[in-house]
Amino acid sequence: MEEDKSIIKKNTNGDSIAFEDLVLAYQDKIYNLCRYMLGNAHDAEDAAQDAFLKAYQALPKFRPEASLYTWLYRIATNTCIDYKRKPVFESLFGASEEGERLVHDRASDAPSPEQLYQSKQIDQALKEGLGKLSPKLRAIIILKEIEELSYEEIADTLEISMGTVKSRIARAREELQKIMQKFREQNP
Amino acid sequence: MSCPKTKLISAYLDKELRLREKTAFEDHVQGCASCSHALEEMRLLRTSFANMERHPAPYGFATRVMARTAELEKKKAPWFFPYFVRFAEAAVLLVVITVGILAGKVMTNSSPATTTTNISSAFSLDIFDATPPGSLGGAYLAMTEVRNEK
């Protein structure tokens, strides 16, 4: 929070070097959000760059008492929702080496090849499930499950009430559960 | 048929239920197969999400963003623009004043002789008389002189 305040102070004084600090501090979170919203690396980078550019132009109007990261998330989420192309989720076999290592790290100790493959399949099924949600439901479940924002932070980011946050999260989870249920029936 | 209390599962897992609601829900789940199954399914879903990879920004991302902000700055007005605006404002003011003076001269439409008379009368000491020329007193005196001559 203190770091955020010093970044804001430097940026509102027109310091372009300080804006780079902001990009470096939040690039992973914003890119990750865009990646899951749009499904592929190319569109994610495009949208993430657009989001930071919009933030750059809007920074003089940013109120210092507001939360910087929910403000950035808001810009990024809206950029993705309004993105010109429909999300195209990359296939299982397009995963990066880094991604494979992370999936391996998160799986149980010394997973078997079958377990690893199943883990990847679930991962892919979940990504495809995300692609089937409406943009608003996709955004809210990504903010909750992947970005791990609280209900209040999500309400602030999406500028909706707490009641709407709760109902959309519940609805998104129900829809994903049905998709995953189908996946498990097809892949016993 | 699913139990209506399955609607609480999401809030329960997110620790958004108040203590009393949470306790009541946990007690309910003990005896409800539908809620118990739905809760387990939801937990599996959340575990799957927790296992999904987090994608870091690609190499050079910040550099590319800063390059685009630099392009934006280049498209803005050049550094000398504010001074150009001030110069233009001063030039417009000068033109307005000049036009005003010239218009004033044209409107008065004075001949050189009238101008000389006006100037000399302006500097004459007659204006300090009790009845200076052009005053009501002066006009009355003139009238009485004419009557006396008659």
- Can you tell me the overall shape of chain B? elongated
Question: Approximately how much beta-strand content do the residues of chain A carry?
Answer: under 5%
> How big is the Rg of chain A?
18 Å
The amount of beta strand of chain B, in percent, is: under 5%
Helix content of chain A: over 70%
Number of strands of chain A: 0
The ordered H/E elements of chain A are HHHHHHHHH
Number of helices of chain B: 7
Largest interface: A-B, 45 and 32 residues
Characterize the biggest β-sheet of chain B: none
- Judged by helices, strands and strand pairing, the structural class of chain A is mainly alpha
CATH class of the domain at 1-88 in chain A: Mainly Alpha
What is the H/E string of chain B? HHHHHHH
CATH architecture of the domain at 1-88 in chain A: Orthogonal Bundle
Low-confidence stretches of chain B: none
How does the major sheet of chain A shape up? none
Mean pLDDT of chain B: 82
* CATH fold-level topology of the domain at 1-88 in chain A: Rna Polymerase Sigma Factor, Chain: A
Taking all Cα atoms into account, the compactness measure Rg of chain B is: 49 Å
Helix-and-strand structural type of chain B: mainly alpha
